[in-house]
Amino acid sequence: MQLLVPDFICIGVQKAGTTWLYNQLVANPLISIPEKECNILTEPRGHLQRYTDFYAGTHEGRLLGDVSPFYATQPVIAQRIREMNPDCKVIIVLRDPVARAFSQYRMATKAERIPPETTLWRAFRKNMQFMQQRGCYLDVLRRFDDAGFDRRNILPLPFEWIGENPLALMDRLNAFLGVEGAADDALMAQRFASYTQGAQPPEKDAARIRKWYASRNAGLREYLWWQPEWL
Hints:
Blueprint: E1 8-10, H1 18-26, E2 31-32, H2 47-54, E3 63-67, H3 77-84, E4 89-94, H4 97-110, H5 120-125, H6 137-146, E5 154-158, H7 160-164, H8 166-177, H9 185-188, H10 203-216
Parallel strand pairs: 1-3, 1-4, 2-3, 4-5
């Protein structure tokens, strides 16, 4: 049996529109992603067979993808992708880390994975639900350098473009993957799941979190093709 592995992987980040991105990708008939968040690479062994089973029944010639935003929190992922498929293309969607943390906090408290009485800063300081690591974007990208990836095979994307310029974002992504993609205005206009719902984090907590990330994401610009307002 032929072993199948992903041609591309979206590694995250959580609360940065990865479900919206997944919906755009699976609508393309040239791409196959059987389900979101398979998390196969977090398993200790057997990746090749697990992926082969995952893609069973896939039409020949399609690009095979994996969208699992949990991967960004796992230091082993870059090396596992490299060993599995050194030509794999990697996508990561980046969001203002303060807004991302607040969105995660709102989701986790609603689901009671974080006690509702816990403040945003306390949850962040204790790194509940990997809240800190999920916004350490520079660490994530450097792992791919350390694993020997060609930076041309890594595509960071701006979360803000999902709302402001989704067509340009998808044009950039399709060019990176080497596929054509017909614009579906209705699909692109779909709202992604948002737990902030227009709410803003407490100003004091937001300032503390931004200060915490300032040194940890210093140097991130060298990996990006746009200039985030939050950096």
